[in-house]
Amino acid sequence: MPNTQRTPHDYEALRHHALTLRRAGLSRRQIRDRLSLPLTDAALTSLLEGEPPPDWTRRPNAKDDLRAKARELRKQGRTYNEIVAELGVAKSSVSLWVRDLPKPQKSPEAMHQMREARWAPYREARDLAIAQTKAEAAAEIGTLSERELFLIGVGLYWSEGSKSKPYQRRERVIFVNSDPDMIRVYMAWLTLLGVEREHLRFSLMIHESADVVGAEQYWADLVGIDVPDLCKTVLKRHNTKTVRKNVGDDYRGCFVVRVLQCAELYRRIEGWWAGMVKSVSTPAAGSGMV
């Protein structure tokens, strides 16, 4: 019986012949007929490995245009979800079409936008809860009596106002703050005490890099005076090595309210505070408004 087993040389020659026919544009059936050999599909596939079929043998695919668009979007840096949303196709299809393309690198701005969008619903719910709690708490206060305002003012001054030191006795009534609401309450307290406007002096301390003119106008309007009636503004030099948090349109520096001829008033404030401290007893556990 003759030996019909092919040698490696025969296989390479046959593969070369098959590839030549494929590159000439022949289909698999045409190549099998030209070779005149009883080749199985698997054997023919092995011979043609690595050589794509000619375009005319490919069946038209309705998703070819979508595939091309998906690849273009991926090259533009779009995510799978963004491509799915724009083309209306399955995510598995997008993955199959573009998996050979490099994963796009998102810019820091894009990453920030994604984080903001992800957390936006939670922040909205949190802000709503905070606003509701504040509104309910504000409603609990109602209208302050004169005595309540008096006591609040004493505590407010002793926490934020200037105080005399044992080693340096200075009986001055000076209140400095950047919170306009604190200034409003303090001014109401001074009025309650009968302090005349002509005994008050106002000034501003602010960083030189801020909107000084706008801040002067803001505080003058708040206390009901003209800007020229303000004392000289104290400018703080800008230190480039310091990273300040008090920047932006709402930064207006610190407002200073001085009371002239105030030694007697300062002594009374000290006494009022001492009286408040003396009258306080430690509340029992579990007692109180809260």
Describe the structure.
The protein is of the alpha+beta class. It has 4 domains: 10-57, no CATH class; 64-98; 109-141; 146-279, no CATH class. The protein contains 11 helices and 4 strands. The chain has helices at 8-23, 28-35, 41-47, 64-75, 80-87, 91-98, 108-141, 146-160, 180-193, 212-223, 263-279, and strands at 173-177, 200-207, 234-236, 254-259. The chain has a 4-stranded mixed sheet with strand order 1-4-2-3. Helix 10 (212-223) links the parallel strand 2 and strand 3 (234-236). Helix 1 (8-23) packs across helix 2 (28-35), helix 4 (64-75) packs across helix 6 (91-98) and helix 8 crosses helix 11. It is rod-shaped. 12% of the residues are buried. The mean pLDDT is 86.
Calculate Rg over CA atoms: 42 Å
What coarse outline follows from CA principal-axis ratios? rod-shaped
Number of separate strands = 4
Strand content: 5-15%
Structural class assignment:
alpha+beta
Low-confidence stretches: none
Write the H/E string, N to C.
HHHHHHHHEHEHEEH
What is the helical fraction, as a range of percent? 40-55%
